[in-house]
């Protein structure tokens, strides 16, 4: 029965992930917010199923999103950062050393940003427009990342409390 439950949850989580990624593509606003919601599905699946099933959910969500929408910036952002971050956060926070956790999370985020920038230069035209300093942009996205990480931590702790109440 446990395998059956994991398969059913995996299908549900994959469908929700694809839905939120698709909504982030067609929505005129709140694109990053919807990708942030899609990224919450991986930690939720880690908590309610297991790591192997969660990785399959990530792969199937990524593949189905590419299949349904094509190569879009939001799908690539999910594949490179938003989908993987749940796993990275899970393993980094097992270290239980806050300064090291912050450094490793920032390292992963900055590597993801560099990869996304290289991909965007190769596939898309004129991603960054305007005369804003690169340092202001880098500071802004680092700040936004900490807000995202904090919000994801709040979501995970809420889900953990709800699971304990049910058990």
Q: In words, what does this structure look like?
A:
The chain has 167 residues and is mostly helical. It has a single domain, classed as Arp2/3 complex 21 kDa subunit ARPC3 (Orthogonal Bundle). It is built from six helices and no strands. α2 crosses α4. The two termini are 17 Å apart.
Beta-strand percentage range: under 5%
Please work out how many helical segments DSSP would assign.
Answer: 6
Poorly predicted segments: none
- For the record, the CATH architecture stands as Orthogonal Bundle
Could you tell me the number of beta strands?
0
Mean pLDDT: 92
Q: Give the CA-CA distance, first to last residue.
A: 17 Å
Helix fraction bin: over 70%
Give the C-alpha Rg: 17 Å
Task: Compose a concise summary of this entry.
Helix content is 85%, strand content 0%. It is an all-alpha fold and 167 residues long. α1 (2-26) runs antiparallel to α2.
Primary descriptors:
0% strand; 85% helix; mainly alpha; 167 residues; 6 helices; single chain
Explain the layout of strands and helices.
Blueprint: H1 2-26, H2 31-48, H3 51-69, H4 73-93, H5 98-123, H6 134-166
